[in-house]
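Protocol step 4 of 6: structure prediction from sequence.
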Amino acid sequence: MNAPVKVLLADDQALVRSGFRMLLDAEDDITVVGEAANGAEAVSRARVTRPDVVLMDIRMPELDGIKATRQIAGTRGLEAVRVLILTTYDTDDYVFEALEAGASGFLLKDAGPAELLHAVRVIAAGEALLAPRITRRLIAQFTAGRVAAQLAEDRLAVLTAREHEVLALVGQGLSNDEIGAALFLSPATARTHVSHAMVKLGARDRAQLVVVAYQTGLVTRRP
């Protein structure tokens, strides 16, 4: 049996943390290893507990969730820690910055229990939680005007033609299975192309590939 997924809860509202803890600890394959009331505590406790997933609120005192995410992503020994950002979607203007900082995905604050459990498991498995209803619109909004044609050409020059195609599909939120079907490849081959693109582009995980796809104009905002 695999070891349970270790989760660190970071939210300045004690009731929110308590609710999440009760839900997560009730699962055989998930265990809560700590709680933090602000970003500074989240970074400190991540160093001690080495969680698989940090459930991170964006808006917290002392150190916000984005800065805390950046510190965790940049800390030696915490490379395997994945951050799942809690967002209110319509009011948070920091989603793109969170992805740049190293977040692996997003969860709506009003998500139901099943969504929360699914999100934790997906992030722990090394995937990105990039539901189009949350991520595509937001990333497109905050990357508007940031694309430089020459920069895009230079940055993507390291990719093969196939990796270029795969990156565009990752940017649209497609899974490895969906990418394989679109390009007539096996899921394993699609996964290999995704991995190669991550290495070549210096992307920490799949979520950062989505950022690159928007930054370089492979995926653009839909009208």
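Step 5 (inspection) to follow. The radius of gyration is 17 Å.
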